């Protein structure tokens, strides 16, 4: 994944942006259950519904709102993306990012059983990484920014919500790791699978 929006083109401008947010503590269950259900609904639909994109756009905005509601539990974050001259190139990047994020976390049943036995609800391993990818045409200063602190992250999330409300999104995807609330995401896994994350 490319991090840093690169040169801002003046002509036909299509942006693909991805924000990753690690949440932990008390936010894990209420936030991740909602996010996971939204992601699972989109995956189950698999493009068959007539309102699939409208649902994806709404789910992205709803997930951003869930994250904003749990700001106190943000732990780490990252923001990246790139700018393209054509919608076809942007679509290809969306597909590449989707494939990348889809493979970021996996666990076997045996691993799950071990993690469940070893962990508890107050463990730091009760955390997850929520990944939101959006594609839009034009320029958006709220989304395309340096991610230095919580204020920046809040502006990015609100920017994504605003893009949805303006019907400006061309693509929207949600990923969450781990994919099940009973799984654990250890320090080692977090460092290995999400090296781009920075502490807020």
> Structural class, from helix and strand content?
alpha+beta
- Give the count of helical stretches: 6
Overall mean pLDDT stands at 80
Query: Order of strands across the biggest sheet?
Result: 4-3-1-2-5
Plain-language structure description:
- The chain has 6 helices and 5 strands; from the N terminus they run βααβααβαβαβ.
- It is α+β, with helices and mostly antiparallel strands.
- It has one domain (14-199).
Quick overview:
This protein has 200 residues and is of the alpha+beta class. The chain contains 6 helices and 5 strands, in the order βααβααβαβαβ. It is 42% helix and 22% strand.
Helix-strand layout with pairing:
Blueprint: E1 14-24, H1 28-45, H2 52-69, E2 74-84, H3 87-102, H4 109-118, E3 127-137, H5 150-165, E4 169-177, H6 187-193, E5 198-199
Helix pairs in contact: 1-2, 2-5
Features:
200 residues; alpha+beta; five-stranded antiparallel β-sheet; 5 strands; 22% strand; globular
